[in-house]
Amino acid sequence: MAEILIIDDDDSMRSSLWHMVKRMGHQAESASTLREGLEKASSGAFDVVLLDVSMPDGNGLDILPDIQRTPAEPEVIIITGYGNPDSAELAIRSGAWDYIEKGTSLKAMTLHLVRALQYRQEKIASRGASVTALKRHDIVGNSHKIRDCLDLVAQAAAGDTSVMITGETGTGKELFARAIHSNSRRAEGNFVVVDCAALPETLVESLLFGHEKGTFTGAEKAREGLIQQAHGGSLFLDEVGELPLSVQKAFLRVLQERRFRPLGSQREQVSDFRLISATNRDLDQMVRDGSFRDDLLFRLRAFAIELPPLRERPEDIKELARHHVDRLCERYGFATKGFAPEFLETLTQHSWPGNVRELVNTLERALASARLEPTLFPQHLPLDIRVQIARAAVEQPEPGAAPQRVTQSLPRLQDFRETVFAQAEKQYLSDLLSLTGNDLKEACRIAGLSLSRLYALLSKHGVKPT
Ligand SMILES: Nc1ncnc2c1ncn2[C@@H]1O[C@H](COP(=O)(O)OP(=O)(O)OP(=O)(O)O)[C@@H](O)[C@H]1O
């Protein structure tokens, strides 16, 4: 029996969904505001949340990420009476399982729920089996986003297709590539790293494909190429966007046929390798610009993993800091160090544009500054980071400027949302009345509201036709 939470302010809708869930033999709970819904989702163990978009205390899509981050990580089905393509796209991009309009028959809604439950059951079963068995290979973090990536690592490791890992610099692309290799059937073979950004253009072909003795000046001995070294293992093309166009063509052929000819050789060689590539560049844009081959991209991206930046998973910072400080202390022969609470707080407030690599470098600098002192304080952190955080705490943003990281006297997020939402709703209603010249029928049509709902909102905000 599954547990379903219905968040909808419309009494009759809530009640018919509740009966639908009960008839399916599941447990149902309901909430009529977003606040109540989020509270219930946070304390319950729901499998699916049916979430209305247009609610009295805000837009349901705004709390979608909060619901997905609750411990049970439920699937969310968005239900709305005012469907529009943009919010449908936003819902799906934000990870909603499905998006349905209120006019949909109960029979069809039942089917959506059955599918969502089936999907969830299979996801939990496969995640349990695959991620538990996964060797993490030093990957630290338990945020929802990292666990989703580990799930993909487990899936990729079980197969043999080419994998492309994308993500900002320092997000752990090489670490994840190694994890795929060491969890795959090729784990006993070589993991050969090719840093495409560091390959000199004149030597790239000979390094990849190898060469015979005397093929060019300086080729005093025959040399095995990196592709051959990866035979039986994995070839990791880091910064693959930097591969020159001429080499892209030759490499495409290697991928298609797993055969290549070393420079100066008459004979073709065979290499059975699994390709993993990584980039922080927008390869689709490079294809549009003509600097990357679309047929190669298509082959490289048979399976894709996108790693999240550290600022989107601050909950991992503490564990990452512990892991890397312990490793660094061991390397330098220090006794391990404790963290003052303010130290962790400061780390969590920084936005880490260089991601985990920047965090690791910063911890190394903090250790050098603390030397034999047993506890790390913010004072051990580099000055530039402390200055940035101190400035952000006191600076008022310029009108229209990007939001800053502020640390003092903020209201509760829910209260802030409610205030902003109420102001925006009031403004919208005034604009609606002026635009329509107080024609309430036309206003209902534009806003997608019933007349009674429009009256209720006008009276709630004290907006009167002029
Ligand atoms: N999830 C993680 N857990 C532990 N350490 C991590 C994690 N992600 C990254 N790191 C550490 O951060 C540093 C950078 O990682 P890595 O080289 O894999 O990043 P990258 O995305 O390949 O970077 P670039 O794009 O600059 O090549 C390494 O020291 C790595 O050990």
TrEMBL record:
Query: Has keyword Acetylation?
Result: no
Segments forming domain Response regulatory? 3-117
Q: Which UniProt keywords apply?
A: ATP-binding, DNA-binding, Nucleotide-binding, Phosphoprotein, Transcription, Transcription regulation
User: Which domain of life does the UniProt lineage start with?
Assistant: Bacteria
Which biological process annotations from GO are given for this protein?
Answer: phosphorelay signal transduction system; regulation of DNA-templated transcription
Which PROSITE patterns does the annotation name? Answer: RESPONSE_REGULATORY, SIGMA54_INTERACT_1, SIGMA54_INTERACT_2, SIGMA54_INTERACT_3, SIGMA54_INTERACT_4
| UniProt cross-references to InterPro entries, sorted A to Z | AAA+_ATPase, AAA_lid_NorR, CheY-like_superfamily, Homeodomain-like_sf, P-loop_NTPase, Sig_transdc_resp-reg_receiver, Sigma_54_int, Sigma_54_int_dom_ATP-bd_1
Q: Does the keyword Nucleus apply?
A: no
Which Pfam family, an example, fits this chain? AAA_lid_14
Where are the 4-aspartylphosphate modifications?
D52
Q: Where is the Sigma-54 factor interaction domain?
A: 139-368
One GO term in the molecular function aspect is:
DNA binding
Which protein is depicted?
Answer: Fis family transcriptional regulator
